[in-house]
Amino acid sequence: MKSNNCTESVEGRQLDIIQRIGGIGYWEYDPAERAIFLPEASQGLLASITGSPVNAWASFMQALGNDGRERLQAVLDQATANHLSFQVDLQLIGSDGRPACLAFRGAQVDLAPGLLGLAGTFSDISEEKRREADHCRINAQLQAQLDGQLASMAIERSLVAKTISDHEAHFILLTEDVADVVWKADSSLHMTYISPVDQRLRGYRADEVLGRHMFEMLTEEGIATVLQIMAQRRQAELDGKADESITFEVQHRCKDGRLLWGEVQSRPVRDANGVITGYHGITRETTERRQLEDQVRELAFYDPLTKLPNRRLLGDRLNQSIVASQRKDSHCALMVLDLDNFKPLNDAHGHLVGDLLLIEAAHRLKSCVREIDTVARFGGDEFVVLISDLSANRPEAMEQAGVVAEKIRICLSAPYLLKVKHPSQTPETVAHRSSASIGAVIYLGQQANPEEIFKWADAAMYQAKEAGRNAIRFYDEG
Ligand SMILES: Nc1nc2c(ncn2[C@@H]2O[C@H](COP(=O)(O)OP(=O)(O)OP(=O)(O)O)[C@@H](O)[C@H]2O)c(=O)[nH]1
C-alpha cells in the first residue's frame, strides 16, 4: 500500500514534541472489551514515568499495585455507567523505586459510530503533588499557629491580636506569591476571600468578586458541573463516605470576555458539630494544558490537512467493526481509494494547490457515506472508506457496497475547480480532472484479520489501476 511517510513522521514528531514538552499522554477505553488503548507516543511517555522501557502499559499496571488497579477500573466503570467526566490521581512506585503520581482525566466520547467509550489524557503530576503537600504543610503550620494563639487569647488578648495580624499578613504574602488563586466562600457559595492572583488571571479586582456568587465566575457548563458535584457530595455525606477534598475542572469567565480553564481543589469548612459553614480552595489555571491535550488528540488520530481520521484511528475502527460485525451478523466493506492523475496537478501548480484538491476530495468522500461510516486519509493521495451494517447475505452486501463505491467513483471524477489565493495577488481558479481507483473487500466478523482485509482491498485497488483507472474492483476470494 502506498503511504505518505513524510506526513506520518511530521505528525509523529509533533506529537512526540508536544508529549515531551507538555508531558501529556492520550488513551481510549472500550467498555465492551474493558481494554485501554494507548498510541505509541503515549506508551513512550508512560514508560518514562514508570521508569520501565519495556511494555509500558503492563509496567504501569504493575506499578499501580492491586489497590490502584481496582481504583482505576472502578472509576472507568463508574464513568461509563453514569456518563461522567472524571479525574483520578493514581499513586505508583516506578521500577527504580521512585514514587510518582499520575492524573488520569477522561470523559465519555463516541469511539466509533454507535460505540460509546471513554477517552482522555494522563500526565505526571508528581511535582504538583509535592508542591501541594508543601502548601498544605505551610497552611497547617499557619493554622496550628493561629489555633494556638487563639486558645491563649483570653489571657493575652492584645498580644495575640498583634500576632494574628502578623500571621494574616504572612498568609496574604504567601497567597500573593503562588501562581494559583486561593479563595473562600460561605455555605451558599458567596465569595468571602479571593487572592490577588485572580485579578492577574481574570481581570477582576477582589472587591468586584467579594460578596458575589461563585457561579458568576463560571460558564453554564461549569455551573452544571459544580451542581452535580455538590449533589454527589450531599449524597456521600448522607452515606458517611464524603471525601473532604474534591478536584474538578471548569471554565471561568474573565472580565474581557475570555474563558479560562481552571482546576479547582475545594474543601468544606466545618463547625465544631461537623456542619459545613463554607468552602475554601485553590484554583490553578489549566487552559494551556487543555489546549495541549486537544492538540495531542488531534495529532494522534487525525490527518492535519483534511481533518479526517488517520491510519492509526482507522486501524482502531477496523478492529471495532470486526467485533460489531460478528455481534450483529452483518457484513462490512473496506475500500482503498487512490486518486488518479493527481501528481500532474502538484507538478504544474505546486503542492499547495494539490492540497486543495485533497481537501475537496475528502469533503466529497464524506458526502457519499453515512455518519456512522468512516472516511480516513492514509497519506499521499490515498483514502480509505469503512462501511458497516451491510446485509448478512454476502451477495446482497456486495451489491450494497458496490452502490456506494459507484457513487464515490462518480463523485470523485467530477471536475475540480480549485480556488487558489496567492498572497498579494488576485485569486485564481485552477481546473483539474482527477478520478479514483477503488479496491473493495467485504468481510463478516472474525473470518479475516485487519492485515488481510487491508491487503486484499489494496490488491483490488491495484487491479482497478491496471484496468485503466477510474474503476472499481472487488477482491475476488476465488
Ligand atoms: N499536495 C500534496 N501532494 C502530496 C501529499 N502527499 C503526497 N503527495 C504527492 O502525491 C502524489 C502521489 O503520486 P501518485 O499516486 O503516483 O500520482 P498519480 O498522478 O495520482 O498517479 P496514479 O496513482 O498512478 O494515477 C506524489 O506526487 C506525492 O508527492 C500531500 O500531502 N499534499
Automatic annotation (TrEMBL):
Highest taxon of source: Bacteria
CDD domains listed in its UniProt record: GGDEF (cd01949), PAS (cd00130)
PROSITE patterns for the chain: GGDEF, PAC, PAS
Segments forming domain PAC: 244-298
SUPFAM superfamilies: Nucleotide cyclase, PYP-like sensor domain (PAS domain)
Sequence ranges assigned to domain GGDEF in this UniProt record: 330-477
SMART domains: GGDEF (SM00267), PAC (SM00086), PAS (SM00091)
Residue ranges constituting the PAS domain according to the UniProt record: 167-237
Protein name as it appears in the record: Diguanylate cyclase
Organism per entry: Rhodoferax lithotrophicus
